[in-house]
Amino acid sequence: MNVALKKPAEEPNIRDVVATMRAIGANARGATRILATLSPAEKKHAIACMAHAIRGATTAILAANCEDMAEAEKGGATTAFVDRLRLDEKRIAAMADGVDAVASLPDPVGTVISAWDRPNGLRIERVRVPLGVIGMIYESRPNVTADAGALGLKAGNAVILRGGSDSFRSSSAIHAAMAAALRNAGVPDVAIQLVPTRDRGAVGLMLAGLDGTIDVIVPRGGKGLVERVQTEARVPVFAHLDGNCHVYVDKAADLEMARSIVLNSKMRRTGVCGAAETLLIDRNAASSLVAPLVGALLDAGCEVRGDRDAQGADPRVKCASEEDWSTEYLDAIIAVKLVDGIDEAIAHVERYGSHHTDAIVTADRDVAEKFLQQVDSAIVLHNASTQFADGGEFGFGAEIGIATGRLHARGPVGVEQLTTFKYRVRGSGQTRP
User: Fold this and answer.
1) Are residues 327 and 197 located together in one domain of the fold?
2) 261 and 185: one domain?
3) Secondary structure, 3-state, the chain
4) Residue stretches of the chain with pLDDT short of 50
5) What's the confidence (pLDDT) of residue 10?
6) Is residue 408 in some structural domain?
């Protein structure tokens, strides 16, 4: 398939931002009516075309990303920030593979969730339907452009993407490929729109709902962004503030398993929200667990900030402050604390955690079940790395974020979470007495 790419749009003059955003909102709302008529096969084909177009645009995407990277490094961005921003051929290929995976997922729209008959003969069905128009506001990770666009379209939604200023060129290049693919597939390219300006006023307009055209906002980024969205939004929000994730190593843990899980949870990618930020170790097995686990982290290049017991295990351990227990580092830093068993571990997670992702390592099934039942986080794991907090790893194809709220969506937000439902009631002339 030959995909004709347009050059990413230039930023409009600031005086045009309001008019531009209103047009984007109106176009998105209009697109939902067209998307409602697409068959599962048509949506699958369009998304597969997007994946193909992203692969074909690798050179253009890399060139745009190089400009974004140079600007970020010149501005003194942190190592973790630069890692989230960076694209290479492998990451672009993985991005396209993720879009292909979304294309292959079962189409959720129209699925009958449940059905029942009433004594009066009415047949009632609860059926999945699109949410409508999704506003996605994100920072630094340009791959979110592809993930959010594909997932939104699969669930029959129109998507308005507002990428970070730091990834503006990268996101624009990815979106240009996707839009061209939609046109070639016979789907209106306004089904997936990218806000063509870095002006922060665009974010405020989205949070206000764009004259009622946006149905839900999904923020993905730092705490400052998410706090602003949750404070100012006039539409529902799927979000989490922090990824202050914990690994608790119980006295019944296998040491080699614990070492592998702790290192992967912290060091596989330190800048993702599922990275472990605190390690809790059962004091009842301190003599056999603390030194090997702390030493492995330090030897892997991780800074360890520990309580007095952890400091006693290795002179390289720095003194932890009260603030460390509630800090999301997004860097090669971890806080380590010894606790008196499962109850204190759960209490610590409840007090300092962010209800994102927490793991226990133990061979004791009863202790594991207690942790899984009582830790009130969106994702809880037994004998597995916290870095599995990812929609792709859950079989969702991709995700547009991890939601830690209790309403509608929780955990990885994939295709099903981007739908709602309605009731279809079929009768044969019934009237209510």
Assistant:
1) no
2) no
3) CCCCCCCCCCCCCHHHHHHHHHHHHHHHHHHHHHHCCCCHHHHHHHHHHHHHHHHHCHHHHHHHHHHHHHHHHHCCCCHHHHHHHCCCHHHHHHHHHHHHHHHHCCCCCCCEEEEEECCCCCEEEEEEEECCEEEEEECCCCHHHHHHHHHHHHCCCEEEEECCHHHHHHHHHHHHHHHHHHHHCCCCHHHEEECCCCCCHHHHHHHCCCCCCCCEEEEECCHHHHHHHHHHCCCCECCCCCCCEEEEECCCCCHHHHHHHHHHHHHCCCCCCCCEEEEEEEHHHHHHHHHHHHHHHHHCCCEEEECHHHHHHCCCCEECCHHHHHCCCCCCEEEEEEECHHHHHHHHHHHHCCCCEEEEECCCHHHHHHHHHHCCCCEEEECCCHHHCCCCCCCCCCCCCEECCCCCCCEECCCHHHEEEEEEEECCCCCCC
4) 1-9, 14
5) 52
6) no
- Write out pLDDT tens, residues 332-361: 999 999 999 999 999 999 999 999 999 999
| Residue 394 within any structural domain of the chain | no
In a domain, 94, yes or no: yes
Identify the pLDDT of residue 399: 84
Phi, then psi, of 383 in degrees rounded to 5: 55, 45
CATH at 315? 3.40.309.10
C-alpha 47, offset from chain centre? 19
Q: 156 and 234: one domain?
A: yes
Exposed/middle/buried for 385, CB within 10 Å: 0-12, 13-18, 19+?
buried
Question: How many domains is the chain built from?
Answer: 2
Whether residues 126 and 175 share a domain: the answer is yes
Judge if 179 and 261 occupy the same domain: no
Domain that holds residue 370: 245-388
Q: Do 258 and 206 share a structural domain?
A: no
List of residues 6+ apart from 108 with CB closer than 8 A: 128, 154, 155, 415, 416, 419
pLDDT at 396: 84
Please tell me the distance from the alpha carbon of residue 332 to that of residue 15, in angstroms, as a whole number: 43
Q: Is residue 430 part of a domain?
A: no
